């Protein structure tokens, strides 16, 4: 699989750039640009996204390191032959000389436009289609862990569909599986496994739990609600219930595997999840 976009400088220089950064990301020096290429000869116009990071000034050191880590992860995972990556290109932003760019932006991550995987309405899909979507995701997780890494930032926005297959994005927080010490806790409370609130390190099981939350919210059509970090801790550690619509009750055994509150009772690999999807859900 070809993971390099290999867009030439001329195409990028003539493209239309629109700044799409969210306010919170802007504060930390992150920039996200939507890029529309100009049609050349018989080639159609194409849509891309370019992510950059300010490297100096009063910006978050964590954001700068996270962005550099992500660039390194794309290169590493590509070299390892990962099948779940979008095609990508690491772009020397300074060479583009676009008026939107700041002198502090030196490199950018260029990705093609892709559809959010969980924007699909589950009621409009058959059980077989949902199973196929979930199996693709589990296979991606399995491949990532076999390559020696945790994603460590699972949320619905990080799953996209490109050329008919689900892909995984955003590798800023990936952790090596052999990481033994507790790193800075920067997880999103909505997706945090109970043990993370108790000070434990991220693990395969915390990624599995986060995936379970993504699936639960998608199948129910309801986002979990909490007002504070303490409320999120209470929700995940004590109050979370798996209450599915009648037509999706076949997925309850799967969600029980993913969302066990006790880490010792939650599955610790992706093989049982694949088996459940293939043999138990009809």
UniProtKB/TrEMBL annotation:
Domain Protein kinase, first and last residues per copy: 1-282
InterPro entries (alphabetical): Kinase-like_dom_sf, Prot_kinase_dom
GO molecular function: ATP binding; protein serine/threonine kinase activity
This protein's name: Protein kinase domain-containing protein
PANTHER family per the UniProt record, alphabetical: OVARIAN-SPECIFIC SERINE/THREONINE-PROTEIN KINASE LOK-RELATED, SERINE_THREONINE-PROTEIN KINASE CHK2
One Pfam family matching this protein: Pkinase
Origin: domain of life: Bacteria
SMART domains assigned to the protein according to its UniProt record, in alphabetical order: S_TKc
PROSITE patterns (UniProt xref): PROTEIN_KINASE_DOM
